[in-house]
Design brief:
Blueprint (H helix, E strand, L loop, with lengths): L1 H15 L7 H13 L9 H13 L9 E8 L14 H12 L3 H9 L1 E9 L23 E2 L17 H20 L4 E7 L3 H13 L3 H4 L8 H18 L6 H8 L2 H16 L3 E2 L3 H13 L7 E2 L9 H8 L15 H19 L15
Parallel strand pairs: 1-2, 1-4, 2-3, 4-5, 5-6
Helix pairs in contact: 1-6, 2-3, 3-14, 5-14, 6-10, 6-11, 7-9, 7-10, 7-12, 11-12, 12-13
């Protein structure tokens, strides 16, 4: 067991050692291109900033995001046994299968945005058996297929003890990282993150409260339609569990192991994979943002490869983004998850790309270029 844990830790450390920063020279060239376009300076705000960041990630001042993927991590959470959700864990598998069949909200939005959807069974209680290793396939991953990467049949109930072992946490993180690498190798230009898992606003609130040392009630919302009484119970379960388990905020893996979920772990791996393989990764809502926070606590430089799409309606959605120093492009009061906010954000990003690549410059319209006063 110790040898296996050491092997996984070494594998993650080896991958993360490959990370380098943004290409500053390319970003400077991109900013000059933006300033030459026939419009007021910096007038497209985050559209300009995010596209410039993407050029720094990919190392080209003429970036493309034509081939795009959504990685939706699907997992169940043992804490559901405490009555903190409106529905049971069987719903996770139903929605995951519907994702594969193109019959969920996010798949409809993804089709409109030209995005391939890759649902991943990283820890559902149903479907398939556990995968003991981290597969490195020779064949391409296929969209609209439920990808089997189950670390375990759901996490354990963290009201009774740690949600997962350190080995399970590392395997889930490495799984997300490897999927990001596979999709980069398949020619994808940008990754979006999403999830499906009954009870994952509970795990996300617990992880966020532990990492940020914030009051549980400040970090916890109603999720998928809890009543006021249900919310109070959810808060009480999280608060008591944090008191009992005492996760160490200086050790992000300890926090993940004690009160996290496999979907959060897998998404954290995707964000780390963005940094390792130099591919931009879009945050979705609260759960995705908590996974991004976890990734940044593991590797601070991972933030350079992330873009925020929207701010979740969940109470702590904005706080987590502020902590990350990321600004959302949209504020639509969405809290559906699955990657829906990322799909909406992509449409805004597309407009920025259209202007950057197609609009005339001041020289081309024979107008003196704007200069900062």
């Amino acid at each position: 067991m110790e040898n296996r844990l050491a092997e996984l830790e070494e594998r993650l450390e080896e991958r993360l050692s490959l990370v380098t920063g943004l290409e500053e020279r390319v970003m400077e060239q991109t900013e000059r291109r933006w300033d030459s376009i026939a419009k007021p300076l910096k007038s497209l705000g985050l559209l300009e900033q995010n596209l410039t960041k993407i050029t720094g990630i990919v190392g080209s001042e003429k970036p493309q995001i034509g081939k795009r993927a959504l990685i939706a991590m699907c997992a169940d959470n043992g804490v559901v046994a405490e009555g903190v959700t409106q529905t049971g864990m069987e719903v996770t598998a139903i929605v995951a299968r519907n994702m594969a069949e193109g019959a969920t909200t996010v798949t409809v939005m993804a089709e409109a945005a030209g995005v391939d959807v890759f649902p991943v069974d990283i820890g559902m209680v149903t479907e398939g058996s556990c995968i003991l290793g981290i597969p490195e396939e020779k064949e391409d991953l296929v969209p609209r297929t439920l990808l089997g990467r189950k670390v375990a049949h759901g996490t354990r109930n963290f009201a009774e003890g740690p949600a997962m072992s350190r080995e399970e946490a590392l395997r889930a993180i490495l799984t997300g990282l490897e999927i990001a690498g596979r999709l980069k190798a398949q020619g994808y230009d940008i990754l979006a993150t999403g999830e499906m898992g009954i009870g994952n606003t509970t795990t996300s609130s617990a992880v966020a409260a532990a990492l940020l040392s914030e009051p549980v009630e400040k970090m916890t919302g109603k999720g998928a339609g809890l009543s006021h009484e249900g919310l109070l119970k959810k808060i009480a379960v999280i608060r008591q569990s944090l008191q009992d388990l005492k996760p160490d905020k200086e050790d992000p893996l300890d926090v993940l192991c004690k009160v996290g979920g496999f979907d959060i772990a897998g998404l954290a791996g995707v964000f780390l994979g963005g940094a390792v393989y130099r591919i931009p990764v879009l945050l979705d809502g609260f759960i995705s943002s908590v996974a991004a926070l976890l990734a940044v606590r593991i590797l601070p430089g991972a933030k350079d490869f992330m873009l925020a799409t929207h701010v979740s309606k969940e109470p702590a959605g904005g706080l987590v983004l502020d902590t990350l120093g990321l600004k959302p492009m949209l504020c639509c009061e969405m809290c559906l998850g699955e990657g829906t906010g990322a799909m909406a954000g992509l449409s805004v990003l597309d407009m920025g790309f259209a202007v950057y690549h197609s609009m005339a410059t001041f020289d081309e319209i024979q107008v003196e270029q704007y200069q900062p006063l």
